[in-house]
Amino acid sequence: MTATKSEFEARLRQIGAERYHDKHPFHHLLHSGGCTPDQVRAWVINRYYYQSRIPMKDAAFMSRVTDPALRKAWRSRIEDHDGTADNEGGIQRWLRLADAVGLDRDYVASTDGVLAATKFAVDAYVRFVRDETLLEAVAASLTELFAPAIHAQRIEGLLANYAFADDSSLSYFRNRLKEAPKDVAFGLQWVLDHADTAEKQDAAARALMFKTDVLWSQLDALHSAYVAPARIPPGAWQPGTHLTETPQAKAS
């Protein structure tokens, strides 16, 4: 039986309540100040891969959209990350975070040190958005429903516990607090309007669960490599390498 829009929205929100990566042990460690400087750096390096692929994912999505109105509404997501003449963009803001924790930003941007598992998870998301239905692709983006809360917690936790944290280094998260709500409002309404059968609602819910798995898998890989059992796989970033000598790095 097809759920009402309000019932279906509640179902989607429950997926986030149960499966969003704010519940992962690594995030609790990070936000509480329990990460070492190198564990923070490993997070910055690996999360950059995800950030850098988001506009690629959105470009792949837009290449399939025949409705000009949907393309027009969606294109701001690419601009939010890549930047415009008036907006630095999320990718550059993330590289400022890399500077603040003492990493060589060119190394971070190269993605050479990213964990293989991170790449597998993120690349799977890009392929999903490229290959599955538009409804499933939009539904997978609805983890944005749950992102503002984690960004707010992260800002508070990083400011309280790490010397590198300030308005400049955390500008990515502050900007997402402003950018994400418009994306959430549009994406959620689009899914609610287009998931008009029980089968489509099930497909959209599975897509959102897939995306939570993508995010969770990244943190699993990070925790395994740099926290416990701290088994760094071949090719991944090695602590103590690709650093810059900055006061922030020494103090972090």
Describe the structure in brief.
By secondary structure, the chain is mostly helical. Helices cover 70% and strands 0% of the residues. The longest helix is centred in the C-terminal third of the chain and has 29 residues, at 198-226.
Structure, explained:
With 252 residues, the protein is mostly helical. It has a single domain, classed as Heme oxygenase-like (Heme Oxygenase, Chain A), CATH 1.20.910.10. It has twelve helices and no strands. α3 packs antiparallel against α4, α3 packs antiparallel against α5 and α5 runs antiparallel to α10. The longest helix has 29 residues. It is globular and about 55 Å long. The N and C termini lie far apart (54 Å).
Give the secondary structure arrangement, pairings included.
Layout: H1 5-19, H2 25-31, H3 37-62, H4 68-82, H5 90-100, H6 105-110, H7 116-131, H8 134-140, H9 147-161, H10 171-194, H11 198-226, H12 247-251
Helix pairs in contact: 1-11, 3-4, 3-5, 3-7, 3-11, 5-10, 7-8, 7-11, 8-11, 9-10
Instruction: Please identify, by name, the CATH architecture.
Output: Up-down Bundle
Beta fraction: under 5%
Largest sheet: none
CATH homologous superfamily grouping:
Heme oxygenase-like
The figure for the number of domains is: 1
What is the succession of H and E elements? Answer: HHHHHHHHHHHH
* Average pLDDT metric: 94
**DSSP strand tally:** 0
Distance between the termini: 54 Å
Radius of gyration: 18 Å
